[in-house]
């Protein structure tokens, strides 16, 4: 029985020593910025013709000494709310030396169904920018 404990100790020691031999040098390279919304999800019933301006905050993982512009798009694969029910400025600016910003999305009930329809907003990905968390707005006619 004592030999089993010794053998088990040797095997576990070998696993610990060999598992630490991985190199993580690839994580030291510049990964670019990740930008996403801190907003989450909102369900909003609006009567026909009514509008609401929704402030939506976003955050970027990097800081720069110059203003940066990012593009917001609708994730059409995950959205079923028609575009006549929302409007927004597609270009958002994060000022120099900042990591946060706020944009406004206007929801207007022009043709919302009686059940919630969804619009998912994301940041356009580029070679230097990765899109993080999306903002989800749901609209219906009460």
Give an overview of the whole structure.
The structure is a single chain. The protein has one helix spanning 2-19, and strands at residues 33-37, 41-45, 51-60, 68-74, 86-88, 91-94, 100-108, 117-123, 129-131, 135-140. It is mainly beta. The protein has a single domain, classed as Immunoglobulin-like (Sandwich). The strands form 2 sheets. Strands 5-7-3-1-9 form a 5-stranded mixed sheet, with no helix packed on it. Strands 2-10-8-4-6 form a 5-stranded mixed sheet, with no helix packed on it.
Descriptive terms for the model:
single chain, 142 residues, mainly beta, Immunoglobulin-like, 5-stranded mixed beta sheet, 42% strand
Structural topology:
Layout: H1 2-19, E1 33-37, E2 41-45, E3 51-60, E4 68-74, E5 86-88, E6 91-94, E7 100-108, E8 117-123, E9 129-131, E10 135-140
Parallel strand pairs: 1-9, 2-10
Antiparallel strand pairs: 1-3, 3-7, 4-6, 4-8, 5-7, 8-10
Low-confidence stretches: none
Into which percent range does the helicity of residues fall? 10-25%
CATH superfamily descriptor? hypothetical protein (bacova_03559)
Using the coordinates shown, work out and report the CATH topology. Answer: Immunoglobulin-like
Q: What value does the average pLDDT take?
A: 87
* DSSP summary: helix tally: 1
State which percent range the strand residues make up.
35-45%
Q: How many domains?
A: 1
Counted beta strands: 10
Spatial order of strands in the largest sheet:
5-7-3-1-9
Query: What's the CATH class, please?
Result: Mainly Beta
Oligomeric composition of the shown chains = single chain
Give the SSE string. Answer: HEEEEEEEEEE
Q: What's the architecture, going by CATH?
A: Sandwich
Q: Please tell me how large the radius of gyration is.
A: 24 Å
End-to-end Cα distance: 73 Å
């Amino acid at each position: 029985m004592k030999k089993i404990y010794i053998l088990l100790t040797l095997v576990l020691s070998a696993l610990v020593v060999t598992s630490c031999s991985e190199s993580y040098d690839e994580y030291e390279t510049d990964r670019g910025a990740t930008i996403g919304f801190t907003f989450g999800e909102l369900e909003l019933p609006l009567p026909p013709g009514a509008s609401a301006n929704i402030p939506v905050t976003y955050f970027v993982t990097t800081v720069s000494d110059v203003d940066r512009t990012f593009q917001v798009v609708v994730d059409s694969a995950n959205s079923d709310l028609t575009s006549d029910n929302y409007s927004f400025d597609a270009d958002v600016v994060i000022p120099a030396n900042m990591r946060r910003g706020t944009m406004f999305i206007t929801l207007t009930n022009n043709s919302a169904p009686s059940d919630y329809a969804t619009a998912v907003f994301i940041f356009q990905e580029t070679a230097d920018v990765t899109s993080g968390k999306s903002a989800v707005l749901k609209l219906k006619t009460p």
